């Protein structure tokens, strides 16, 4: 729990640094637009700082409750090995996903990653993994490709041809 609080505190300091540089480091860009280009990043940084502060508060409250119950020493390191193992598998999965995305494209690598990550998080229902992978890939594809006009990786060879086919739908 102390590690969670320390990480949150460091992230708050980093967000405050970014917010300070965003607010005072840029030139006067508000002349042409009252909101300016910094409105969205400022909103996100303030929201992140507030949520991190809430996380610290909830962690401190949970630590007090555990200490009062006398279970703090016993539960502090109970699942650390399993958490580190999941973290390592998550990092490996993300690396493979990023590597595969260029080779086989977004449309084919994203469902594989979503299904893998759901399995890693403990979901054993293949129907739920398949449905979630398909729906999340479709939603992300529509969001980035259609609404935000971001070109997504198509892959090479037959994967490129199939990705181009899906774009016509």
Question: How are the secondary structure elements laid out?
Answer:
Elements lengths: L1 H23 L14 H31 L2 H4 L4 H25 L1 H15 L5 H22 L10 H11 L1
Helix pairs in contact: 1-2, 4-5, 5-6
Please give a structural write-up.
The model has no long low-confidence stretch (mean pLDDT 83). The chain is built from 7 helices and no strands. The protein has 2 domains: 2-75; 80-168, no CATH class. With 169 residues, it is mainly alpha-helical. The protein is flat.
Provide a compact summary of the structure.
It contains seven helices and no strands. It is mainly alpha-helical. The mean pLDDT is 83.
Bulk shape: flat
Q: Which band does the percent of strand residues land in? A: under 5%
Helix and strand composition category = mainly alpha
Euclidean distance between termini CA atoms = 49 Å
Largest sheet: none
Radius of gyration: 22 Å
**Tally of separate domains:** 2
Tally of helical segments: 7
The ordered H/E elements are: HHHHHHH
Q: Which spans of ≥5 residues are poorly predicted at pLDDT below 50?
A: none
Keywords for this structure?
flat; 169 residues; 7 helices
């Amino acid at each position: 729990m102390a590690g969670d609080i320390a990480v949150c505190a460091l992230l708050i300091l980093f967000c405050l640094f970014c917010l300070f540089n965003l607010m005072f480091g840029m030139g006067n860009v508000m002349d042409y637009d009252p909101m300016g280009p910094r409105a969205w990043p400022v909103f996100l940084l303030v929201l992140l700082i507030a949520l991190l502060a809430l996380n610290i508060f909830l962690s401190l409250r949970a630590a007090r409750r555990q200490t009062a119950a006398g279970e703090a020493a016993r539960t502090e390191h109970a699942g650390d090995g399993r958490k580190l193992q999941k973290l390592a598998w998550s990092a490996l999965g993300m690396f493979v996903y990023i590597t595969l995305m260029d080779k086989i494209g977004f449309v084919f690598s994203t469902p594989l990653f979503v299904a893998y990550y759901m399995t890693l998080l403990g979901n054993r229902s293949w129907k739920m993994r398949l449905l979630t992978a398909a729906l999340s890939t479709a939603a992300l594809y529509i969001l980035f490709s259609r609404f935000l006009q971001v070109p997504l990786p198509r892959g090479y060879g037959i994967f490129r041809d199939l990705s181009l086919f899906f774009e016509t739908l």
